Write a sequence for this structure.
């Protein structure tokens, strides 16, 4: 009994250490990508000096009152995980519904070569995305549309990413209706909330670390 307990503990510690080592190695790989480092540097410099998004991110972390338009970015580790799991490459087009300051779009393109499109309704955030893209000379690959994504037809893409964390149940219902009409084969990725869209299959769900803590990611395919 004692022996088996010891074996289990050693096994557990060994497995945890290997998982942690793998995580550290994965994060380090990011720093080997000079463009990504440049994005980080530019992003933080710009935000520290001009933007209030840190204040907004803090709002989400500290669970104060949030709205549908509350901003919090998906970290680069999530883009990295998604690019790997979805096997993204330059033949794909990745749409971020509610793209905020455009970090997800930039990171996904830099990590995978996929074309990206962001739709964002707040002008200040959209202008930042465009400035950053221009600075990094990525205009051809990362495009932004200023609009409410409920008010326009969605562009034809291979992947749609939505951070549903702050969405009310009414917004989630509206989103479900919107996504009912997208083409078969499109991959939908949601954060926090799962979807009950017609004709979709859940391919994978997993936990990831966001700035506001651990949260769920769901990957669906429209059939
Ligand atoms: C939580 S942030 C996520 C930012 C980005 N997707 C990321 O993961 O880094 C959500 C963004 O969606 C935008 N948003 C919310 N509802 C929207 C709508 N109906 N149309 C366009 N943008 C919307 C908000 O303004 C906010 O910038």
């Amino acid at each position: 009994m004692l022996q088996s307990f010891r074996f289990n503990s050693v096994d557990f510690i060994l497995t945890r250490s290997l998982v942690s080592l793998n995580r550290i190695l994965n994060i380090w790989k990011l720093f080997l990508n000079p463009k990504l480092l440049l994005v980080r540097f530019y992003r933080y410099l710009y935000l520290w000096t001009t933007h209030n998004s840190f204040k907004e991110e803090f709002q989400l972390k500290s669970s104060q009152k949030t709205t549908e338009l509350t901003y919090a970015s998906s970290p680069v580790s999530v883009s990295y995980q998604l690019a790997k799991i979805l096997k993204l490459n330059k033949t794909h087009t990745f749409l971020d519904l509610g793209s905020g300051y455009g970090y997800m779009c930039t990171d996904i393109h830099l990590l995978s070569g996929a074309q990206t499109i962001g739709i964002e309704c707040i002008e200040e955030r959209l202008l930042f995305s465009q400035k950053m893209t221009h600075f990094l000379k990525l205009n051809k690959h990362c495009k932004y549309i200023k609009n409410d994504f409920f008010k326009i037809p969605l562009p034809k893409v291979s992947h749609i990413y939505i951070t549903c964390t702050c969405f009310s149940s009414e917004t989630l219902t509206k989103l479900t209706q919107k996504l009912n009409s997208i083409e078969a084969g499109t991959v939908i990725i949601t954060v926090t909330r799962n979807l009950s869209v017609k004709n979709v299959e859940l391919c994978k769900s997993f936990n990831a670390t966001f700035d506001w803590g651990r949260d769920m990611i769901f990957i669906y395919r429209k059939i």
Observations:
- The two ends are 50 Å apart (CA to CA).
- Residues 68-69, 71-74, 96, 98-100, 103-104, 119-122, 125, 148-150, 163, 165 surround S-adenosylmethionine (CB under 6 Å).
- The first helix runs from residue 2 to 31.
- The mean pLDDT is 82.
